[in-house]
Amino acid sequence: MKLNNKHIFKRPRLLIIGCGDVGMRLLPLVRARFRVFAVTSNPERRAALRAAGAVPVVADLDRKDSLHRLAGLARHVVHLAPPQPEGTRDCRTRNLTAILPDGAQVVYVSTSGVYGDCGGALVDETRTVAPKNARARRRVDAETVLRAWGRRAHGRVSILRAPGIYGHDRLPLERLRAGTPALEAGDDVYTNHIHADDLARLVALALVRALPGRVYHASDDTRMKMGEYFDAVADAVGLPRPPRLPRAQLAQAVSPATLSFMSESRQLANHRIKRELGARLRYPSVEATLRSLPGVAA
């Protein structure tokens, strides 16, 4: 898409940090309202971002010296970039807040992993965070840093806590083909989901309707355990269901990272996105989405 609209320079500027899959789904939803700048650390992605309607900006959150071009560029920011893969502090978010203009709006996509294991309980956004691994601690750090920046710089920070992101082209097919086991029913955990398209829509709604300082669960209506999810995907695409193992045996068969995802159980209440953001999910449940996938090839 060529940005040749004569009013383009009058639109408010939006900066998307971490414009990967969800960011690319977001672009068509916001490019009529904003002049969009998309950050990439890979110069080879500039053409794709430009074709999708964004002005590409090459910068790297791991390199402070590359961020000067972002300073003051936009007063609306969508932060989709994950933390760096080690440590308990999110250095990338810390680097970002150093160049954000006072009074800016930031929508940050975090993770429901910040709650840790809730024993399968239904939790809302008032639940105290209790991260159990370094990955989730980095996300809590990012949220804390952004809130502190908001108080200091009179910024408007809204946080979307997303669970497992899936989509028509984001299904665990390789896991199923590999026969990776799942937990047996007695040990299984509740898992939560959001379709990537709906997550992009929730980000777009948050830019317009989110309250400053507010946390929202970016989750669908599904109430499903993890093994049931794998079974449902397998049935939908014609692959064998994964074998089920008790937790003690499964711990010997999967990586520690995979096991950590299978050690936390919670159900996310999503009333707030409907009541405050006016969200109407296009894909309200995994089951309904999978029923629409008869053509998915295994």
From TrEMBL:
The segment(s) forming the RmlD-like substrate binding domain are 103-259
Give the matching Pfam families: RmlD_sub_bind
* InterPro entries xrefs: NAD(P)-bd_dom_sf, NAD(P)-dependent_oxidoreduct, RmlD-like-bd
Source domain of life is Bacteria
Name recorded for this polypeptide: SDR family oxidoreductase
Species of origin reads: Massilia terrae
**Species lineage:** Bacteria, Pseudomonadati, Pseudomonadota, Betaproteobacteria, Burkholderiales
